[in-house]
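Record type: monomer structure entry
Structure origin: computed from sequence
Chain ID: A
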Amino acid sequence: MPRFLTLIRIDEKNAPAEGPSPELQERMGKLLEEITKAGVMLDTAGLTPTSDGSRVHWEGGKLSVTDGPFTESKEVIGGYSISQCKDKAEAIEWTKRFLATHEDYWTITAEVRQIAEG
């Protein structure tokens, strides 16, 4: 079965400073438990803010490293999941259910892409 990487993109400037509410964490936990029991979820995690990150860039044969936060970024990757689904449609359905656990004030975009296998 194909594997899919889902990138969760958020607008850090509009996300709650305190992070996900306890109610959201509970809803996410229940859904992640369901996805895991279904044998779909292989790995998932949230990421620390961009202020804790670094970008490594290659251009013109030279490397550069820039520490966060990255002011030019509106949307940043806030988390990811790797799932194994029968097809892309199934991966999208699980992703839609995950996004729907969030309160209305969140703005989230998820990018679902199949992992290229050998």
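Annotation 1: The chain has a mean pLDDT of 93.
Annotation 2: The first strand starts at residue 3 and ends at 10.
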